[in-house]
Design brief:
- The structure is a single chain.
- The strands form three sheets. Strands 4-3-5-6-7-8-9-10 form an eight-stranded mixed sheet, sandwiched between helices. A five-stranded mixed sheet has the order 12-11-13-15-14, sandwiched between helices.
- It has two domains: 6-193, Fructose-1,6-Bisphosphatase, Chain A, domain 1; 204-332, D-Maltodextrin-Binding Protein, domain 2 (3-Layer(aba) Sandwich).
- The N and C termini lie far apart (50 Å).
- It is globular.
- The chain is an alpha+beta fold.
- Helix content is 29%, strand content 23%.
- It has helices at residues 6-16, 23-42, 66-80, 145-148, 217-227, 245-255, 277-290, 321-332, and strands at 53-57, 63-65, 85-90, 97-98, 108-116, 127-135, 157-163, 167-172, 177-183, 188-193, 204-206, 238-239, 258-261, 294-296, 316-319.
- α5 (217-227) links the parallel β11 (204-206) and β12 (238-239).
- The structure holds 6-O-phosphono-alpha-D-fructofuranose (P6P).
- 6-O-phosphono-alpha-D-fructofuranose binds at residues 116-117, 119, 208, 243-245, 274-275.
């Protein structure tokens, strides 16, 4: 199989889209360099002193782990210097980051979760970086929050890096979903999963069943349906939950299935669910729709949700089309 790099794959589609200027290609390549640096640290976390906590807590009220902080600082440092961005938003930072005046600016806005699933870092379970890219509508001056709070349907690119048994990159620019695997011997991400499509009906459901007593009735009905014999499969779906959304999402993308993080009454601060719209739900929803799947908050399409704050949380049901349609039917009947 010919060794196709990310750049070559992007240039193939760039030729097809006359609006393309190569800047998104350059932006993704800058992200790739940051991901290679993060991957190197993740893969030796047990050896270097990057395990454990920094002692701080982030805007989400979560304890910050050293690798979280490392990944966040690498991404901000590298991407600020890409010359392609005007603003950055990180899940780890409360406020929008304006690209400093002494650095070259561009028209793009990058939103990311630097290391999703970080609670798994110390136990050697796969974690990931999730990214979302928008094009600025205005063309100069400081970027206002209103310019960043776009609906997910306006993303120009999105995807994730998965630091697992191998390091992978999965992205979309609106021309399908393409997966690349890092070949450490050449230091390149090489095309390993061209034009990824999620099976229309899955065989896996992913949810933290420990939250059962805090779910509303529609969520309990949905999970009972997946565990019953009168579902699409006429037998119970398999339950799989890694606790790292990028890993659960990636497995479902390949095998078929649905990942669910519904709202629950466990924590009053999280009465709209735990996952963030801008840096987790939107990018994953763009990817899943391009792969033939669906993503909803139970009632609405994720990509149609009008954001009102940077770290807004949203219930998330995402994966195989027929399974997500069933979820919407059950929610719609309540
Ligand atoms: P819980 C990781 O912190 C994360 O944001 C997702 O990657 C993951 O799916 C979820 O939280 C796990 O949350 O409450 O089930 O431990």
């Amino acid at each position: 199989m010919p060794q196709v790099t990310v750049t070559e794959q992007l240039l193939i589609h760039q030729k097809e889209s006359p609006m393309a200027t190569g800047r998104v290609t350059r932006l993704l390549n800058e992200l790739i360099l940051a991901a290679k640096i993060i991957s190197r640290e993740v893969n030796k976390a047990g050896l270097a002193n990057v395990l454990g906590f920094t002692g701080e807590t982030n805007v989400q009220g979560e304890k910050v782990k050293k690798l979280d902080e490392f990944a966040n600082s690498v991404l901000i440092y590298r991407m600020e210097r890409s010359g392609l961005l005007c603003a950055i938003s990180s899940e780890e930072n409360a406020d929008l980051i304006q690209v400093p005046d002494n650095l070259r600016h561009g028209d793009y806005i990058l939103i990311f979760d630097p290391l999703d699933g970080s609670s798994n870092i110390d136990v050697n379970v796969s974690i990931g970086t999730i990214f979302s890219i928008f094009r600025r509508t205005k063309n100069n001056g400081p970027v206002s929050l209103e310019e960043v709070l776009h609906k997910g349907s306006e993303q120009v690119a999105a995807g994730y890096f998965l630091y697992g048994t191998s390091t992978m990159m999965v992205y979309t620019t609106g021309n399908g979903v393409h997966g690349f695997t890092l070949d450490p011997s050449v230091g390149e991400f090489l095309l390993s999963h061209p034009d990824m499509k999620i099976p229309e009906t899955g065989k896996v459901y992913s949810i933290n069943e420990g939250n059962h007593d805090y779910w509303d009735q529609p969520t309990r009905d949905i999970v009972s349906w997946f565990k019953s014999q009168d579902n699409h499969r006429k037998k119970p779906y398999t339950g799989r939950y890694i606790g790292s959304m990028v890993s659960d999402f990636h497995r479902n993308l390949i095998y078929g299935g649905v990942f669910m993080y519904p709202k629950d009454s466990k924590d009053s601060k999280l009465n709209s669910g735990k996952l963030r719209l801008m840096c987790e739900a939107n990018p994953m929803a763009f990817v899943i729709e391009q792969a033939g799947g669906l993503a909803t908050d139970g009632e609405k399409r994720i990509l149609d949700i009008e954001p009102h704050e940077l770290h807004q949380r949203v219930p998330l049901f995402i994966g195989s089309k027929n399974d997500v349609l069933k979820i919407m039917e059950i929610y719609g009947n309540n």
